[in-house]
Amino acid sequence: MKFTCSQSDLNANLSLVRSAVPNRPTHPILGNVLFVADTEKGLISLTAFDLSLGIRTSFSANVEEDGSITLAAKLLNDIVSRLPEGEITITLEEEDDGEEEQSKVTIESVSGRFQLRGMKADDFPELPTIENVEPVRLPVSALTEGLRGSLFAASTDETKQVLTGVHLSGLQDSLEFAATDGHRLAVVQTPTQQTTEEEDSTPQPESNLEGFAITIPAKALRELERIMTMHKETEAVALYVDEAQVIFELGSQRLTSRKLEGAYPNYEQLIPHQFSRSATLERKRLLSSLERVALLADQKNNLVKFTLAEEKGQLILSVESQDLGSARESMDAQISGESGEIAFNVKYLMDGLKALGAAEIQMQLNQEKQPVIFTPLGGLKMTYLVMPVQIKD
Amino acid sequence: MKFTCSQSDLNANLSLVRSAVPNRPTHPILGNVLFVADTEKGLISLTAFDLSLGIRTSFSANVEEDGSITLAAKLLNDIVSRLPEGEITITLEEEDDGEEEQSKVTIESVSGRFQLRGMKADDFPELPTIENVEPVRLPVSALTEGLRGSLFAASTDETKQVLTGVHLSGLQDSLEFAATDGHRLAVVQTPTQQTTEEEDSTPQPESNLEGFAITIPAKALRELERIMTMHKETEAVALYVDEAQVIFELGSQRLTSRKLEGAYPNYEQLIPHQFSRSATLERKRLLSSLERVALLADQKNNLVKFTLAEEKGQLILSVESQDLGSARESMDAQISGESGEIAFNVKYLMDGLKALGAAEIQMQLNQEKQPVIFTPLGGLKMTYLVMPVQIKD
Question: Which ipTM did the prediction report?
Fold first, then answer.
């Protein structure tokens, strides 16, 4: 194997696959990145795979000799990111005779020469493939919007299985994203048809998504989010699904992930559709007030109390801490329905407010123990449901 | 106590004293910052003190009522930094009747009201004072330069006592800064007379520094460095010294620190003045090469080998790691004296190269076990001594 490429290409592509390299690999080779050099196509492909999440990317290079090898991902990334701009030549020094497990790889740049020990490509696990399946095509814009509004609400508790993922389901012209950790729920609908103002834009191929439903680990979707930032909003992601796996393809990048098994909770039935009270609020103002009063919230229950003062047209936030003191902030609010009090975990509110995006939001509620809904006024089609916390007397 | 000030003044001054607040205070009140409000001067002073390092700062405010109180430094800093710009009013709600240990303090801004529990000012330890001593006056520029070139070389091992500080000593027209951890030594001389091109600048009062010698904890000097960044280079720091303490005064800021006891090593005798070999090197090029090859250096001894190739006019850096592989970089160098090899701890070299500052540096050496000297060509008057490491065969 021998090829020459630019430092910036190699560096960008190594960074891209790095997140599929486990920090503590269960087997040494999983800490490596797989290089495959193809003279015919003039391409280098890089693959990292932690047995659940896999990322493959390829880029153009001057390939002199076919071949493949795996190299320590972190070390290589550290070296390449520090090399000066310009050409880098990577050579597999001695072809393996089948007995030695390690081979020498030389990395040459204008500044000097590194020699690393590589491990045989044969020992690197195969990325899952999905054959004979028509992909679903989703615009980058729709996926990006949907993930931004839902990923944060997924559970980080690995024992919660299906709740550690985001549930994607197909509606007639849109894709629905849902994530919940049992305390709050975020649901976003994004259109799957591109609405673009450019006249010469090619309409995206229509995928029939009705009935489509799948739960994908949040970790894999965070990486997908990162990969999408390097692409245009008008590009399309091809999504291949089989019983156990999903594959996202976008330009020369491919991300594979296992699916999460088990039925996703029927969240639709949790969302109330009739409300006795509502308040329209300035999102940033509410968020910055919450960030301040949260400093005094008890670390145990993180409780913040909302007082709706209908006559005054004000929302009052208050926090009491046994040890530290108390905080009280108020802001203008358009309130309809009766005045009253309700309490929340302040962290759940802050997470949701960051994702809602719009300048103004609406809070809709019934009695003080029933779920509360936050929706943006304009922009994203998102519903954020938070369970209130009981106020202690 | 009651006063009104701007959010930005309060925030800046709280941040300034924060570093003298210990993370884990041995007594609760040391986690607090002392507020003293003075109606006559229209000033608020803030003090933090961890019993070794103390910082006091003051700023103008509209003081309605004299008084003093202490408040949890971290919490207050977190709150104030998040308050919107504008006026803040702080009121000590109920004067202490002598029995209660805690008092209520209200912090009001346009956005709302925080109420915190304060602890009595009487219980806050007094900052050391130094009476009837003429201060030494040092230009900010000289102190800043001296500290930048020496602080990094002080030992971080608390058992090494006097080596955890920087030794300052007075020469005829300059101040010498020295720091060593036993493996390397940094010495900087900075002029104490301002050389400024502004014609209307007032000459600094001349302090006779000959014979002056003192060792100050690196931690205190790092804070002094930070305080000085907020002042002009042409300002002067007044340094008061007694048997146990030092006080630095700069504008409305004051930093007190204990001195480090014990004789500082006679480092001057360690520095060789005759050399059989030397090399002139481009500093940034050497530093970036070292940063790359260091990635392969054995974590135990961090060894990098320098090969001086006089005929080729090159310096070759090489690193070998049993586990990872090897690295070799070369760069142009003006070499005088014989070719040969010498090895260093790569981390010590990188630290020193960052501080040396000049575009070109000179490395001067004798035999492979004798100390090596690095000096900048032009700019700072600095000597960086590193002990070489024995090369294993």
Answer: 0.87
